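Components:
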Amino acid sequence: MQSPEEGLIQRYKILEANNKTSQDVERTPMAKGSAAKQTELLSQDYIFDHLKILISSGTHYIHSPEMQLNRFHKVMLSSYGGVCML
Amino acid sequence: MQLIAYATARLEDRLRWCFNTVPYTLREHKTIQAKSQNVILFQKLKMKKEEIFENVKQATPVLKAISDPLREKLDRIFNTHLGDNTPASYRFGNDQDEMWLTAFKEYSYAVVTAMDEYATEVLGADETKDLDKDIRTALLGCAGKAALVLDDSSQADYCSFPFMSHSVITTLVRNMSMVERSIFEVSSAFISHVLLGFSIDRSPRGSLRCCTWQKDMGRTGSLGRQVQT
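Structure:
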């Protein structure tokens, strides 16, 4: 059984393997749940770049508590994680 | 500026600078440091260190040399000195704070020692020379380059910031969540400056300093005094 965060990483890897970027992520209006959160995260350019660094660093970050999907979603889309300052 | 993503990228870069094929060992670093005590040689050696530092920054990192056990080791050192609930962790990155600077010195010493021990252990176990040549070179020089990168006298960007590990993210998130409304308020102030066309300090030091804003700001979200970035 794949965990939601594993799903996020797998979707990122598929996009990267196909030379896709955050702009190529298709959004479904009014969608809810893990898949919607994954889509929302992957469609942000800075999160896409962030995942690139984390995944290229082996499994160290992937298995950290901060990567748990709900937590990661909350942090990355919060004022300190996500809202544009500049 | 997305702070968590930005901080992760910059601090991960600092770790990656230690693993490349630029020849610079811990012994060489110690020799340079010892000779730098001489007033006549100081300036010349300072320039030499800066030159090596630039080479290290430009070099391609050997990512295979940064293994998960090493990252876990660095993470434990971070938690012991600068992370978890240590007093220094609440002063993350504040290079004006004596407590942070003292803890950071201890952290730097522990990191350099750990990297040296790790490299000796891995290279010692590789009797059959199966390791890739680039990985061997990267491991041979990692402790020296770590000492160079963590040298807080260098005045380089992020010179008093630790190497990246998952606990660094945890600490950053905790500290920033304490001042979430303040960050939002400061962000709003910047937006008006951008719209008016004023210049803003875009230096990395300026952007990351918000990690330590809780010292300057009340936790209610209002600014204690004019924030300098």
